[in-house]
Specification:
This protein is of the alpha+beta class and 294 residues long. It has eleven helices and ten strands.
């Protein structure tokens, strides 16, 4: 069922004021056309469960890009991580920063907001681009708790890739330290395409909102990507590990606890399959902020 079909819409202002469980139930039903099952069974239902219930510090650090970098480098000291060239709250300060020819501006505490910069920054333009970026709508509007805990900052990172091409984004779904699915996104700033593969690089056909990308050979670094993803994902019941391959070298991107917020359109069969792979912790453990030892 397409998102929201046959479901009465509730205004964002009303949803914002609802208690978290009710807010998420409304948002989930508007997105998927059904209420989340209790207990949760599918992948998106379990993402929704995590948003509502999981308050472990282990999960809480994953809304803060600087904190997740620290976790990644502490777990894998040799991992390549893009350099942070500047962090602050006022882009006017970038006028005094010696930036490379290409760079990336994004919020420390949010997602889906990215500006690809070139050369000396135009501060007036950046003020327009980043208007509202220091706000935090993902918790207020969607209840995504990890972003409430993150420091509200803007970051400039080094750009990965060549002047002609933004590298493909490899999103590796890891359950209990085991890689189960690889999602490859290309053309993220233009003609966005997506292709899914099993860990051995067998293509997976799905019905999603993003158009399918071409089937490509596996990256030269696939074995290293798998090693990195499983090492970073080992402490979690589930996490998505976002990595880049640049010239055969693996670079860290992010750790994502709530893919799509549990609200993006998701292939129904894949939703069931990935849900069966996710072993949620007991409610008592996540309420107490305890970290389960696996």
């Amino acid at each position: 069922m397409a998102a929201g079909w046959g479901v009465q819409r509730v205004s964002p202002a009303v949803v914002r004021r609802l208690p978290l469980p009710a807010k998420r139930a409304v948002l989930y039903r508007q997105a998927h056309g059904r209420r989340p099952a209790r207990p949760p069974q599918t992948f998106t239902e379990k993402v929704n469960w995590r948003v509502v219930h999981d308050r472990r510090p282990l999960i809480g650090q994953l809304g803060d890009k600087l904190a997740m970098r620290q976790f990644a480098t502490a777990t894998l000291p040799g991992l390549s991580v893009p350099r942070v060239l500047w962090a602050g709250v006022d882009v006017a300060a970038l006028a005094e920063v010696d930036l490379p020819e290409r760079w990336v501006l994004k919020p420390n505490h949010g997602t889906m907001r990215v500006h690809l910069g070139t050369g000396r920054p135009d501060v007036d333009q950046l003020h327009r681009v980043t208007a509202g970026w220091l706000d935090e709508p993902l918790y207020r509007d969607r209840g995504e708790w990890v972003y409430r805990r993150a420091r509200r900052l803007l970051l400039v990172e080094e750009f990965l890739g060549s002047a002609e091409e933004v590298p493909a984004d490899h999103k590796l779904f890891v359950f209990d330290g085991r890689l189960r699915l690889i999602q490859v996104d290309t053309g993220r700033f233009g003609a966005h395409r997506r292709r899914l593969y099993t860990p051995d690089w067998t293509p997976v056909d799905v019905d999603e909102a993003v158009a399918p990308g071409p089937v490509t050979p596996p990256p030269a670094s696939l074995a290293r990507m798998t090693e990195v993803a499983e090492a970073l994902g080992a402490p979690f019941d589930f996490v998505r590990v976002d990595l880049y391959d640049v010239g055969g070298r693996v670079w860290f991107g992010e750790l994502t606890p709530y893919p799509g917020g549990g609200l993006d359109r998701f292939d129904p069969a894949l939703d069931v399959l990935l849900g069966s792979m996710w072993r949620l912790p007991p409610r008592s453990a996540v309420r107490a902020g305890q970290q389960l030892r696996r």
